Amino acid sequence: GAGRGRGKMAAGGAADTQARFGHSVKGLLTEKVTSCGTDVIALTKQVLKGSRSAELLGQAARNMVMQEDAILHSEDSLRKMAIITTHLQYQQEAIQKNVERSSNLQDQLSHLLK
């Protein structure tokens, strides 16, 4: 009878060990699932940040293209203004020559009329 009792104790001890093992496995699994969840959240945040970065880069590129267009337009306007300025200078010189000629003519006329 005594031998059988010891067997039951050993079996009870084994069941106890198994239960403890089951608990530790459950604990490890829970830990792993939690850390996995944390990693997924971190990854999601990173992906969102990356897509936001791409969006900002795209916006910056569009802005640069718009600025480039504005600069080219300004350059074109400046070139046209330079041409207009040159023409105005020629006209001013021509007017000055005409004024000098007319004052010479006036001098000649006044000498003739004396």
From TrEMBL:
User: Which InterPro entries does the UniProt entry name for this protein?
Assistant: BORCS7 (IPR032143)
- Tell me where the signal peptide lies: none
Q: Does the keyword Membrane apply?
A: yes
* Entry keyword set: Lysosome, Membrane
Q: Name one GO cellular component term.
A: lysosomal membrane
Q: Name one Pfam family in it.
A: BORCS7
Q: In the UniProt record, does the keyword NADP occur? A: no
Q: Where in the cell is it found?
A: Lysosome membrane
- The protein's predominant localisation is membrane
Q: Which PANTHER family does the UniProt record give?
A: BLOC-1-RELATED COMPLEX SUBUNIT 7, BLOC-1-RELATED COMPLEX SUBUNIT 7 BORSC7
Family, as annotated? Belongs to the BORCS7 family.
Quote the protein name from its UniProt record: BLOC-1-related complex subunit 7
Source organism of this protein record: Eulacestoma nigropectus
